[in-house]
Input
Amino acid sequence: MTTSRSIAAWFLAACIVLPAAGQADDLNSLKSELNSLKSDYEARIAKLEARISQLENQVASTGAPAGAAGSTDAAAAAVPADVLAAAAADTASAGAASPEQEMPAPAAGRNAAAAFNPAMSVILGGNYASTSQDPDTWRVAGFIPSGGDVGPGDRNFNLGESELTLSANIDPYFFGNLTASINGDNEIEVEEAYFKTIAVPDGFVIKGGRFFSGFGYLNEQHAHAWDFVDQPLVYQAFFGGQLSQNGVQVKWVAPTVLFIELGAETGNGEEFPGTHRDRNALNGATLFGHLGGDIGDSTSWRAGVSWVDLHAEDRTYDDVDEFGLPVVNAFTGRSRTWVGDVTFKWSPHGNPIQHNLKFQAEYMRRSEDGDLAFDVNNLALSDDYDTTQTGWYVQSVYQFSPRWRFGARYDALDSGTTHIGLVDDGLLPPGAFPLLESANPTRVTVMLDFSPSEFSRLRAQYAWDDARDTDTDRQFQLQYIYSIGAHGAHKF
Amino acid sequence: MMRLFHGVALLVLLMSAMPAHAALKVLATTADWAALTQELGGDKVDVYGATTAFQDVHRVDAKPSLVARARSADLVVLSGADLEIGWLPVLLQESGNPRIQVGQPGYFESTAFVRLLEVPSTVDRSMGDVHPQGNPHIQLDPRNIAAVAKALTTRLVQLDGKDAQYFESRGADFQARWQQAMTRWESQAAPLKGTSVVVIHKDQSYLCNWLGLKAVASIEPKPGLPPSAAYLAQLVSQLTAAPPKMILRNAYNDPKAAEWLSERVHAPVILLPYSVGGTPEAKDLFGLYDDSINRLLKAVQ
Output
């Protein structure tokens, strides 16, 4: 360093004096001038260098906050060597730290373009399943098949959903989120792709795009956040697992200490129990309200009531007729579902690390009325149809030791009494709609999971599944859920 | 239905009838920031602490009650540096409150005003739940409190200009008392310099740094991960060879691991409040430091 600086000084000096260099008699005086210049520069440089090293020492010994100028000496003596090293390596930001100024969060190792990359996270999931009954025969007795991703899935090892989420604030007004899932059959599905307002005041949040409907408790949660491998039977039978909307949602939170949330949604309503309709008019509406709060410092709760109203047009499903021959039937009409949900979470003083308990229950009551068509491809007979069906589940998960949780769930459905015009009028025999014969499917599930860290979970689950209402299916599943990338934030 | 409508209408009426000069509503993520905001804001602020000293701020639910608080807050005071990443983003999004979104004056991130320790040069989850921006547990170095207090006073003035004088004089008063207390603590704590301690999580780093305590080991092998039997065995042999003076435990930590280790390496477990409210003595920020230092001094005598 010193050498290069002296050379620079020499060069500078040489440039100044070059025009005079030719005159021999001035040579000596020039030499002495140069020498004095040189020593002058070197003295200055030495001074500067001393000053720099002094400053470097000061910064290093401050160690921590820049606002603590008064206690520099005490800190210097107290700081451990590794902290000193870290501080010395990071002098640039320390120099800038004045308490009035907000320091930008260090974006170490990022370039400016990458700094705006959205938060990215990937969920890896998979399972091993063993079932005593053939999974292909699985159905929820007494209910029109929902056609969703339901049932215990295939036997043996299965690659589950790999879920990719990208999210970020779009600008000061909107937040954007994309969640795509790639299933084991190599299909990509857009689970959610929505924008959400962050600048609308007074407790309003408007969401648009495709999103999980806000009714009930479990519907908005992604599969990796479930406490069991699969959804409750009532979700599988009534909504094909989960209801998503292509549309808009408006939510309002009341300015009260008690949590009060009201929401409304509408959209194209193409998901079961609705269907796509080739019309400009919106299909149906969802309304929901939630209350929530704390009881002491250990318990928090949330409860709600929701209403889902959808229209179906030629909602087809496969069945067999009274001779066991395959037919395609179809429902056209209105489907309305009431949902009640309640959730409690308990942990000692609100600290869930050692022990915590979660309890949740949901009840649904669905009425469908319209027309039911039999064998739409051939006979195409149609007459009126109405039914009121109910279902509920209750589940609880207890963390009995850090990392370990045990859970139990009970599912029950009642297919209710169904009025099928074609049968009641005597046009078709009662056996013409075997899937709709009255039934009370139930299921008992227990699970044990182990979470080595916040980002990994291994689970074993055993279920006595009476969804068929004939033979019990004993289902055993092992599951893994891994999360990589950005740290997720979960809803209550 | 009509009755419900009337109820809602009444509610809206009540909201709009609220006094225009109400105190600033503040949602603080920890008991320490709640205490600091209270010190600085006096009766011009209405502070709600989202967590207590008995909770691990990493692991908190985005409870409905907190969404309700976020909805009406004028200011959120948080630690930042990803400490609250598991729950605060949900509160902000669900709140429908533009005042407290990231980058707004109502979003006050304390770690932005101090220099963080333990900023990792590389991050990977195999290192545990590391914080890319550095260690966020800044409240146990009083110099950090002073720096955050200064910035927070400025922020309160920015949000509520008509009470500027009130905040500034409270701020100046707090700084004076705090500087005085700091001098006292530093002289009281002089005998602690160089004391070797075992910590549970790296949330005592700032205290160790300030007081010159030497953290020789951590019961968590990696941030956020509980110790395995093999790791504990290795810890015992390491600490038997060079016994620490004490094992530090925070109010929210489970005592088991610390006590287990204590029996084997013959070092006492010292309970520290860690946050305001962690012990009966730690009633406010001054009490937090007084009590922490008292408990540490008792252990070395």
In short: Confidence is low (pLDDT under 50) at residues 11-22, 60-109 of chain A. The two ends of chain A are 60 Å apart (CA to CA). Chain A touches chain B through 81 residues (CB under 8 Å).
